[in-house]
Amino acid sequence: MSIRGKAFIAGAYEHPDRKIPDKSVAQVHAEVAVGALADAGLSLADVDGFFCSGDAPGFGPLSMADYLGLTRLRYVDSTETGGSSYVGHVGHAAAAIAAGKCRVALITLAGLPRSQPPARSGRPSGPESAFESPFGPTTPSMYALAARRHMHEYGTTSAQLAAVKVAASQHAQHNPNAMLRNPVTAEEVLDSPMISDPLHRLDCCVISDGGGALVVVAPEIAKNLPGRTVKVLGHGEAPKLQGSRIDLTHTGAVWSGPRAFAEAGVTPADVDYASIYDSFTITVLQTVEDLGFCEKGKGGAFVADGALLAPHGALPFNTDGGGLCNNHPTNRGGMTKVIEAVRQLRGEANAPVQVPGCDIALVHGTGGSIGTRMGSATLILGQEDA
Amino acid sequence: MSETRQLPAPAPEVNPETEPFWAATARGELLVKQCEECASLIWYPRSVCPDCGSLRTRWRPVSGRGRVYSYTVNHRGEGPYRDCGPYVLAYVELDEGPRLMTNIVAADGGRLGDGELAVGLPVEVAFHDTGEGSALPRFRPQSH
Lengths: 386, 144
Hints:
Shape of chain B: globular
Distance between the termini of chain B: 19 Å
Largest interface: A-B, 36 and 48 residues
Strand order of the largest sheet of chain A: 3-2-4-7-1-8-11-10-9
Shape of chain A: globular
Oligomer: heterodimer
Helix content of chain A: 25-40%
Strand content of chain B: 25-35%
Strand order of the largest sheet of chain B: 6-5-4-7-8
Radius of gyration of chain B: 16 Å
Largest sheet of chain B: 5 strands, antiparallel
Strand content of chain A: 15-25%
Number of helices of chain B: 1
Number of strands of chain B: 8
Radius of gyration of chain A: 19 Å
Largest sheet of chain A: 9 strands, mixed
Order of helices and strands of chain B: HEEEEEEEE
């Protein structure tokens, strides 16, 4: 069984704020939920499937569903694969809809890491923790290790990594809600303070409050809605688990990508626009290689050649400015990646970066760590009639 | 150039499954798990073989020698590392195969200068006492 054409994204909403000191996390979940449902022409009373991930406040998905008054739920899913969760949730929602388990699925994300950093999790630490945390790993340093190894094996340079940020900043200047709207040069990236060698501050995504939501519906619901919907064509997931031999030069996209392409019946050459998870510049560079947009190891040359620039690059990416410039709500970029792909397919991206004739979009989410325990989800979306 | 100031050595969380590993570090011995069915070396140490699924695993010592697989000088430490200044986080590939997260330190246990670091640098284990009955397996350039 395939999910191709069995579900449609009917609503998408990105919270406009990047700093929200005066609201609760649950409140922001509600604002984005209502926003996405309004975008679809639906309401909370229509929702019978609910998806959030492990960072939602309270007990699994139950507290948020209760807060939102989702009394008609038939299906819940709180899959937690870090920032890739929401990309995976779209695939899970489509599968649930295809199986007849629900018809209107709501996916929400909200968090306030910028103005209200959360207290330490009370969850038991992972079995790996004692063998890693005493050595002082941080999220940027883990990706820096990957960048260093990629440089060693393939000759990738800091200037090539900087090209990813330069392209994102070119796009962000057209987004009035973006956190960082000023275009930057590669020199400015290289001159920014070193965070974890070889990653500079401008190689890292922003930390922002906010959130977003999506509404995925069955075809019979989609055809009666007033607005343009987006067809779910394919989905692939592949947590990267390496055991004793961690490898820092590839991502889970080497498996999730082919699964999604196969289900959608398309190839990388068919993709008009891509939302690529951009926690760090190296994340993008490795992902475009692993998804097959260029040869493995040639990602540096690919991005430095302007491939990522919208609207006319070989692979226009992250036209909202991505996590590097626009928004990385609650340190989880998967939601905003799906939202910008929906905008592109509906022709609603900011005009200077709208890809003309955008028929097929790819979304890739990354989560968790990078050597192993990496969440990876790829989604392929198309026009209503794709 | 190395500074003599030592890195923080926060104590790991020890549980019944990992107690033999940490007790060995206090004796200056580096252990990994080995699967008794398929002979895989298992890192991080655990009681199930991630390669074949066997629950029959045993502790075995390794040489403590290897090479730097990748490294970073982290300028923004968190928690116990918040105020310690830049430090080297790395993966070391042991001669026996597994790749371990660790820190690279100078021969005297202090910081290693930037120019002394390289992917492929031969290193050997150096245990840093946590003061709680365990020691962190860090690595320094091989002395010979």
